[in-house]
Design a protein that fits this description.
The complex is a heterodimer of chains A (about 190) and B (about 400).
Chain A lengths: L7 H9 L3 H20 L5 H18 L12 H23 L27 H8 L4 H12 L4 H8 L3 H27 L2
Helix pairs in contact in A: 1-2, 2-3, 2-4, 3-4, 6-8, 7-8
Chain B lengths: L2 H14 L8 H55 L11 H16 L11 H35 L6 H30 L11 H7 L4 H8 L2 E6 L2 E3 L2 E13 L4 E17 L8 E21 L4 E32 L5 E15 L7 E15 L2 E12 L12 E9 L1
Antiparallel strand pairs in B: 1-3, 1-10, 2-3, 2-10, 3-4, 4-5, 5-6, 6-7, 6-8, 8-9, 9-10
The chains are: A mainly alpha (about 190), B alpha+beta (about 400).
Protein name (chain B): Outer membrane protein with beta-barrel domain
Keywords (chain B): Membrane, Transmembrane, Transmembrane helix
Keywords (chain A): Sigma factor, Transcription, Transcription regulation
Chain lengths: ~190, ~400
């Protein structure tokens, strides 16, 4: 939040009142974060800007519904969680509009070979992306939605038109596969 | 790294990550927002304009009807009064009766009638003058014929001439008698009960707009229309009331109100997936408000172009899936001993979407057709095409439709 001159709560209040400067500041502050969220689902840079803009349209439209009663230091985290969910919804809508929500699970071992982790103790964002790329699309999607964005299984089930139990199964498989992938990469990269 | 550490590490790293800000992203966002707002504002204004247009057209129609009705009542009251319509009167004598009609039409009823305005008095006066002139011309024609007879009966001609003159005199006498009879007939002719607005001579001289002219130029045309159509593998249906206001001889502005029941189905190609979206069904019911221009061509043909908005009353979007499932069945081998076998089967499932669809759908409409007259009513028929402004749902369903329009004007 380096460029932010106003505290977040004042920025949000300004946006509720449709203050153009507050909107611009909020947009520029959180553009990078939302682009990062979108990138975890869609690896197309040219599409991401369009999706982020669509998410901001929804954010500014619904910003009066954002409410937080916790301690002020948690406000940014809560706000990020809220806008992250909106971004995820926009991305899911886009994936569904493409009609290519493939539920493929099997991946060959050849898909692991180009992935290398740079820092074994402290994971960088690129390492996470590399690890997530090990997962089949449906597992990747559910892992992102549940573990990172904080959706519940019932919410995921509604969004993806599947049962909550299927969502749980996909999540547990994704965790197992992610761990296996992580160990495999550690062994191949560092001989651990 | 432990399992929990790994996932929390992933979570933290993901939340902390920010992509670099792209130059011009905010400007791009503002442009997009302005465009989307513009579309919303346009539809709001279009809706309001359509309502005002309908109110205006309704007002024009109501005023016209009221004027026509009041004129009918006043004229029929005067025509049915025997004291004012004397059939034995001469044309010049009959005129006050006609004037009375005119006066009664223009003047309010009651004892304390207001005096006629100077313009109306002048019109009545001109009419009297015109009628007197017509009678004078008729008399002059008869006199001319008498003069001709005198020429034929000139003394000093030969016997043949005399004979001819005699014959001519006889025929002339008959002609004069016929002329006199016709004069009497004109004089004694009963005053026709003319329908209101059909005083052709009077109207043409005074340039008064007759009811016929009003009907042809400014009256609204109403039509009941039904328009079945096909698009997106399903049949849709629309019906409603159309109103047309003639702007000129060939061009008319139309609007109306109707019910639209739109249906669409999409299909998705299969793939190697465990669960695969096979297709979707979208059903929408709404109120349709069209605004269009109709151009009348020769031979009863017409072309129509415009836009229409459908306010969605209810919608239903359903997705169809094929989910492969496994079934355990009991099979018997050659020795007759049973064993379990797993069989792969596909189950088709349908789920209702929770997606919020647009409240309004806009269409460009184009149609052509022919108008056929049956008695007092007119029957129009012809093909039409409707092209939506944008896709309806995230599944890119477009309600592009082609169909046939049938309407009965009255």
């Amino acid at each position: 939040m380096g460029k932010q001159e106003l505290p977040l709560n004042q920025l949000v209040e300004g946006c509720v009142l449709s203050d153009r400067k507050c909107e611009e500041l909020l947009y520029k502050c959180f553009y990078g974060y939302l682009a990062g969220v979108a990138y975890r689902y869609i690896r197309e840079r040219d599409v991401i800007r369009e999706l982020v803009n669509e998410a901001f349209l929804r954010i500014f439209k619904k910003i009066d519904r954002f409410a937080f009663d916790g301690p002020p230091e948690e406000l940014e985290k809560a706000f990020k969680g809220w806008i992250g969910k909106i971004m995820a919804n926009v991305v899911i809508d886009r994936l569904r509009s493409r009609k290519t929500l493939l539920y493929i699970e099997d991946m060959s071992k050849e898909q692991f070979k180009d992935i290398a982790i740079e820092m074994p103790d402290r994971l960088a964002y690129n390492d996470i992306i590399a690890l997530l790329d090990c997962l089949p699309p449906i597992q990747q999607l559910i892992f992102n939605l549940y573990e990172i964005e904080g959706f519940s299984h019932s919410e995921i089930a509604k969004r993806l038109n599947m049962s909550a139990s299927s969502s749980r199964v996909y999540l547990s498989r994704s965790k197992i596969k992610l761990m296996a992938c992580y160990r495999h990469l550690m062994e191949t990269s560092y001989g651990r | 790294m432990e399992d929990k550490d790994l996932f929390s590490e992933i979570r933290d790293a993901a939340h902390e990550w920010q992509e670099p800000y792209e130059q011009g992203a905010w400007e791009d966002f503002r442009r997009n927002r302005k465009r989307k707002r513009g579309i919303v504002v346009f539809w709001r204004y279009a809706g309001v304009a359509a309502v005002f247009l309908l109110l205006f057209l309704g007002g024009v129609w109501y005023t016209n009807q009221r004027e026509i009705n009041s004129t009918h009542k006043q004229v029929s009251r005067v025509n049915t009064n025997p004291n004012q319509l004397n059939v034995s009167q001469k044309p010049s004598d009959a005129e006050p009766t006609k004037d009375a009609i005119v006066e009664n039409v223009f003047r309010p009823a009651g004892k304390n009638r207001a005096p006629m305005s100077s313009v109306r008095r002048q019109l009545v006066k001109s009419k009297k003058t015109i009628n007197a002139h017509v009678v004078h011309q008729l008399n002059a024609a008869a006199n001319n014929e008498l003069v001709t007879t005198d020429t034929y009966g000139n003394p000093g001609s030969g016997s043949n001439n005399r004979l001819q003159t005699q014959t001519s005199l006889d025929s002339t006498a008959t002609a004069i008698s016929r002329n006199n009879t016709s004069k009497t007939l004109i004089a004694n002719a009963p005053v026709k009960k003319v329908p209101p607005g059909s005083h052709s001579l009077y109207d043409s001289l005074t340039n008064r707009v007759t009811d016929d002219k009003k009907k042809s130029n400014h009256n609204l045309t109403y039509a009941l229309a039904i328009n079945p159509s096909v698009g997106n593998k399903k049949m849709s249906f629309g019906a409603g009331l159309e109103v047309f206001y003639p702007v000129s001889d060939h061009l008319s502005l139309g609007s109306g109100l109707g019910f639209a029941s739109l249906h669409a189905e999409t299909e998705n190609s299969g793939g190697n997936a465990i669960i695969q979206l096979q297709g979707s069904n979208l059903d929408i019911n709404g109120i349709e408000l069209p605004i269009n221009f109709k151009y009348q061509l020769s031979g009863g043909f017409y072309v129509n172009a415009g836009i229409s908005a459908v306010a969605v009353l209810n919608n239903q979007l359903a997705y169809h899936y094929f989910t492969p499932t496994t079934q355990t069945i009991t099979q018997f081998d050659g020795k007759g001993s049973p064993h379990q076998a797993i069989q792969l089967a596909s189950a088709k499932s349908t789920e209702q979407s929770k997606e919020q669809l647009a409240s309004y759908i806009g269409f460009y409409t184009f149609s052509t057709g022919k108008k056929q007259t049956f008695g007092k009513s007119q029957f129009s028929f012809g093909p039409f095409i409707k092209i939506p402004f944008n896709p309806i749902s995230s599944q890119n369903i477009r309600f592009t439709q082609g169909g046939f329009n049938l309407s009965f004007s009255f």
